[in-house]
């Protein structure tokens, strides 16, 4: 299924890139830009009357010959067309910056949740109690149950503390502070 979706996305990308051409992205002046300002002003009342006039009258009143604009208005028309063409780009840039801000907020929230999960110490777990349990009842794996490692507790219970080897290793790790409760740190340590 993953291979199919990968192939499908590759095909879509290939088709979309194949349909791109320079003519699609270059500015070409339409008839609206080649008309003079006077012609555009004259056509505005005809466009306003669209709702009131029948279709036959509308086509007769709007169909005006295209008159080329003087060369002095060419820069103004080009700039106006550029502004209209770049308006969607500005909206896209705003949307992209909004998405980036949202992603940053989500990332900060995930970090805060992760820090909140890792921060609390194990409730009521003492290093001294763990060491005493390991020393006296280590062959039953009681210290592992106390620290929250149920699977290792069952293993030590069934193997009698790994024939004493796991119990000795656990005792040394508890004393050095290397073996900690599963869900955090000790609330009471030897140093306290």
TrEMBL record:
Predominant localisation class: membrane
Nucleus found in the keyword field: no
Presence of the UniProt keyword Signal in the record: yes
Transmembrane segments: 129-147, 154-175
Domain TM2: start-end pairs: 124-172
Signal peptide stretch: 1-21
Domain of life of the native organism: Bacteria
Keywords, comma-separated and alphabetical: Glycoprotein, Membrane, Signal, Transmembrane, Transmembrane helix
Membrane topology of this protein: Multi-pass membrane protein
Subcellular location: Membrane
InterPro entries: TM2 (IPR007829), TM2D1-3-like (IPR050932)
Stated name of the protein: TM2 domain-containing protein
Organism: Hymenobacter algoricola
Classification lineage: Bacteria, Pseudomonadati, Bacteroidota, Cytophagia, Cytophagales
């Amino acid at each position: 299924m993953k291979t199919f979706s990968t192939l499908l996305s590759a095909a879509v990308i290939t088709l979309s890139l194949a349909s791109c051409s320079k003519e699609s992205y270059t500015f070409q002046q339409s008839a609206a830009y080649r008309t003079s300002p006077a012609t555009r002003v004259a056509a505005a009342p005809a466009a306003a009357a669209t709702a009131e006039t029948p279709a036959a009258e509308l086509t007769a009143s709007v169909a005006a010959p295209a008159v080329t604009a003087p060369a002095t208005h060419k820069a103004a028309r080009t700039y106006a067309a550029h502004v209209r063409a770049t308006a969607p780009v500005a909206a896209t840039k705003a949307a992209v910056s909004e998405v980036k801000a949202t992603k940053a907020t989500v990332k900060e929230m995930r970090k805060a949740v992760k820090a909140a999960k890792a921060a609390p110490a194990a409730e009521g777990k003492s290093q001294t109690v763990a060491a005493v349990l390991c020393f006296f009842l280590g062959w039953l794996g009681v210290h592992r149950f106390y620290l929250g490692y149920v699977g290792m507790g069952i293993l030590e219970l069934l193997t009698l503390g790994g024939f004493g080897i796991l119990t000795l290793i656990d005792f040394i790790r508890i004393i050095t502070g290397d073996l900690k409760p599963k869900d955090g740190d000790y609330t009471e340590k030897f140093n306290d």
